[in-house]
Amino acid sequence: MKNRFPVYGLIIFLLSFLLFLFLNTSLESYGTISLRSSISTTTNNNLNNSSSSGNNSPLPLNNISNLSTQSLPNQDTQSDFDVQQGLPLSRTIGIYDLPKNIVLTDDNGKNNKIPIRAFFSEGLITQLEKPSVNKQVKFKLDDWNQNMIFSLQDFSGLNIVNIKNILVGQIKSYDSVEDALEDATYWKNIPLNEEIMLRFENKGLNFIILEVTFQNGISGIYHAIFNLDAYGSESDADDLLDYRMDKENANYNIIDDSKPKIEVNNPFWQISQIIVCEDLKYNGFRVCG
Fold first, then answer.
1. What's the whole-model pTM score?
2. For an engineered disulfide with 280, which of 96, 173, 223, 285 has Cβ 3.0 to 4.6 Å away?
3. Is there a domain that residue 288 lies in?
4. d(CA 193, CA 108)
């Protein structure tokens, strides 16, 4: 009987040791589970708070790079100049009460509206609401050598000096937006309310951008797209024009054109770059990235 007590003591010691190991392991597991549960609850609460606050930004755990990009200035703009976007014309008062449209009346008597897209004064550019592909203003012209009259659609208290610049270019694929501008046709100092003739170079879709200057130092930028649905070729149209002028003594007020000389820091060319990028993009040509 005396020899059994050491055996019993050994058994009790082993059982106590195993119970200690079991309890210690259980406590560690419980602590790990509780910690993970706490982290998960905190994360879910943060996401729920973000959603309830109306913030539609990507979830932070999966889109960390997107969040950091959103907090930075607009990195996708094609130019490094400051353009204030989204200012409705209805909110512009006083000196900014510009005509909403310039009207191009063709030789068939059809009035085609060219709406305002931006204005600038003393170097400060304000771009109005950008049109979507469904809001692009388009009309049709049917003559290579087009007689037309530019006029105002609505009354403005501002005195217009003239149309300082007109830029017309074909909507097609280019290597860069600079190529699109340089390939365009350019006119300057065009009168309003007078019959003139502009000679176009390309059939199909073309952008037209006008800079209209006012006596108070403000310039408005007007823009539309037109489809030149002309008969025959450009050379045939030029031959017919020469015949009418030489043989029939026809008199046309032809505005001389030239190739553009782009001025990098000029607001007209800066705005034109943005507009042309949009026109090319909305018509299937990814030129500006």
1. 0.67
2. 285
3. no
4. 16
